[in-house]
Amino acid sequence: MRHVDRASLYRASVGFDRMADLMDRVLSADSAGQSYPPYNIQKTGESSYRISVAVAGFAADDLSVELRDGAVIVAAKKAETEGERTFLHRGIANRAFERRFTLAEHIRVEGASHRDGMLHIELIREVPEALKPRRIAIERIATTPRVEKLDA
To answer: Which CATH architecture has domain 37-130?
Structure first.
């Protein structure tokens, strides 16, 4: 497991503690446990995004999408089916899962839809007016020539 020394980052910056925590989380995550279910993250516009999660075999009632602690959490629990079925081959995994997507600041979840075995989560970036760049006018002050008195 890797460890990132964040002390040098904190010495030279202010307010980057969340980014450093995110880097620690990414570097320490177990990659083997994060392969199911497969997903895509797509940029659909100037300030809009879509997370698409492959949820074959799950009904909309089996899925939940929750926004908690700056992250979208997608979870699924397969409802128990009535009667027993016998499978000769079972290639579609219907196991329970929880997938977490950490959101950047000012990203809002607009909605979610389930269609054709895919769960789509629509996201939009809304930067507040106070944080958008703005041009500051520079006031021009007329200067008057300095008059020096000569002692004669």
So the answer is: Sandwich (2.60)
